[in-house]
Amino acid sequence: MRSIWNGAISFGLVSIPIKLVNATENHSIHFRQIHLADGGRIRYRKVCELDEEEVQGGEIGKAYEDADGTMIPITDEDLAQLPLPTAKTIEIVAFVPADQIDPLQMDAAYYLSANGVPAAKPYTLLREALKRSNKVAVAKYALRGRERLGMLRVVDDVIAMHGLLWPDEIRAPEGVAPDGDVTVRDAELDLADALMDTLGEVDMDSLHDDYREAVEELIAAKASGETVRPAESGDAGGGKVIDLIAALENSVQAAKKSRGEEGAGAEGEGEVADVHPIKKTSGKSSPQPTKKSTAAAKKSTGAARKSTPKSTGAKKSTSTTKKSTAKKTATKKQTSSSSGSGTKKTASSRRRTSA
User: Fold this and answer.
1) How does strand 146-155 pair with strand 158-164?
2) 130 in Cβ contact with 152 (< 8 Å)
3) Which of 188, 216, 272, 333 has the fewest Cβ atoms nearer than 10 Å?
4) How far is residue 343's CA from residue 136's CA, in Å, rounded to a whole number?
5) Burial status of residue 56 (CB atoms within 10 A of its CB: 0-12, 13-18, 19 or more)
6) In a 10 Å sphere around its CB, with 0-12 CB exposed, 13-18 middle and 19+ buried, how is residue 310 labelled?
7) Any idea what the Cα angle at residue 69 is, between residues 63 and 71, rounded to 5°?
């Protein structure tokens, strides 16, 4: 890979000659501007405002525009004379835990390659020290006309450097959070946790740019004269008020189905069955009995016949009980009548004696 900067890492009194190599590349598809009438390419020319003539690159310099519009020329020699210790040096200023670096500060990434055989030993020393400490190095360096902040860490067996934005370049998130107090229920958090667990982890190497591939296919189709069919666009549902619980539940089921988990996305799962009332069949012939139902009916008839004598005996005992009850009632009546007549006779004998 081609280096874009040569210098050294300043590690205390240790100096490590290195070459800076881009660790990332841009795969975006770039378009040219054309004249729609004839397809001619539109080009930008650098023209001087004073004489309205086109100026070549060698005739162009730098200048700072003051508040009143005055141009203050700045030459490369002026910038080269500035006391900038990081002009050719990546100066390590501290070693800190990686979680102290705010991801918002992350910028471009580079690989640091040892420049020559003498650099191998100190390069390896710094790499192994970073590995064993589980820390990253915070450094300052100068690139493309300005001093920058960087973070050094180990990737495989290579020291990588991430460009960092300066702390004052990070804007405060004022007015970005939703207005008003929003309450999230525990049930919603539980479903969100279930969705995160279901989605799980991903192999980062498997991710790719679908849009870029679609643009490439579009360009190939147009180049070959094929008719391009518009893609079907699904409803993104933007701006709609949704049932959050239902959306989370459906998301969990969809994630499980996409991962092929058992019991997920089964046909009819989660659906309510339709209940139909049984219609009365008046005036219609009943269905023919089956052999099993006929045999069961015969068995129940036989059992009923066997139990008949027992029920007859019960009737006899009932009638006997009724007769004995009637006799007791008659005896009580006779007793009461005889006692009544005896009482009358005693009363009449008393009347005669008194006379």
Assistant:
1) antiparallel
2) yes
3) 272
4) 128
5) exposed
6) exposed
7) 20
- Closest by Cα among 21, 189, 191, 45 to 114: 21
Query: Encoding tokens for residue 261?
Result: 């988990």
Q: Going by DSSP bridges, is the β-strand pair 3-11/89-97 parallel, antiparallel, or unpaired?
A: parallel
Quick one: which of 142, 166, 14, 163 has its CA closest to 85? 142
Residues, the chain, total?
355
What residues contact 153, with CB distance under 8 A and at least 6 apart? Answer: 98, 130, 136, 137, 159, 160, 162
From CA 17, how far away is CA 143, in angstroms rounded?
16
Distance in angstroms (rounded) separating the CA atoms of residues 220 and 223: 5
Please provide the DSSP assignment of 2-62 as one string: -EEEEEEEEETTEEEEEEEEES----PPP---B-TTT-PBP----B-TTT--B--GGG--E
User: What residues pair up with 3 in beta bridges, in sequence order?
Assistant: 21
- Alpha-carbon distance of 202 to 90, in angstroms, equals 35
Kindly state the tokens that stand for 144: 């493309």
Give the CA distances from residue 149 to residues 163, 232, 354, in Å, rounded to whole numbers and listed in that order.
6, 45, 147
Q: Write the pLDDT tens digit of every residue in 246-260.
A: 887 888 888 888 777
Q: What share of the chain is helix, strand, coil (3-state, %, to 5)?
A: 40, 20, 40
As a whole number of angstroms, the distance between CA 197 and CA 256 comes to 10
Model-wide pTM > 0.70: no
